[in-house]
Amino acid sequence: MGKSDRQRRGWQTPNLQVSFTLNEELTVIEGIEDKTVSAPRDHPFTMQSVGGQTLAVFTENSSGQSEERSDGSSSGSGAGAGPDKIALEGVVVQRAECRPAVSESYMRLKRLQIEESSKPVRLSQQLQGPVTNNYRPVANHTYNLEYERKKKEEGKRARADKQQVLDMLFSAFEKHQYYNIKDLVDITKQPVIYLKEILRDIGIYNVKGTHKNTWELKPEYRHYRGEEKTDE
Fold it and tell me: Where's the TFIIF beta subunit HTH domain (predicted)?
């Protein structure tokens, strides 16, 4: 290898320092403070020892693929050539770290990056005139109005005859043993206070256990239909 070849490949004599030079077209960085800055082109490699570690380089060729040699030729017979092959290429004796060279363009780039990251997320701005957006305060929100409407409807429910409500409750408890008060209100269409007054006479409110916060019939009412048939 001649001197010109070594220089083209980034090798410098006599210390054999390796450097990487970026293509000038790839050094342009946009989007930092709406400015166009240039990244450093020169990136020297710092050579270090592996620090007592044993590192090696292996290559693996998949089954059926040809192996490319250093001279450009290939070996292998195509598909079905055999199992995968792993080969030891060499042992690592040095580690190279690529770092940008400290230059004016590099320091300018880092300064802009630091300024960009230190900008506050929110900025306060003094208004020069009144706000013209049509944002007006709302006396009451839609979901609050809907809740009030349902509440009024429940309050306006006419109380049915007690015996009629009992019949609806007994019919419901024949299907299920436990109900919460909301379901019973939907079934009977009665005000909550009035319904609870009737439930206290015929039902038990569970305050703990598996069926917490539910109503069930008292034992003497659970098989009332069977008892009516027996009395007859």
Answer: 158-222
Report which of 77, 90, 84, 81 is spatially closest to residue 60, judged by C-alpha positions: 84
Which bin fits 31, alpha (ψ -120 to 50), beta or left (φ > 0)? left
**Per-residue model confidence (pLDDT) at position 228:** 43
**How far is it, in rounded angstroms, from Cα 114 to Cα 179?**
64
pTM of the model: 0.33
What DSSP character marks residue 158? P
User: CA dist 85 to 2, 61, 62, 63, 76, Å?
Assistant: 36, 5, 7, 8, 11
For residue 116, name the pLDDT band (cuts at 50, 70, 90): confident
Rounded to whole angstroms, the Cα distance separating 152 from 150 reads: 5
Residue 90 clears pLDDT 60, i.e. is over it? yes
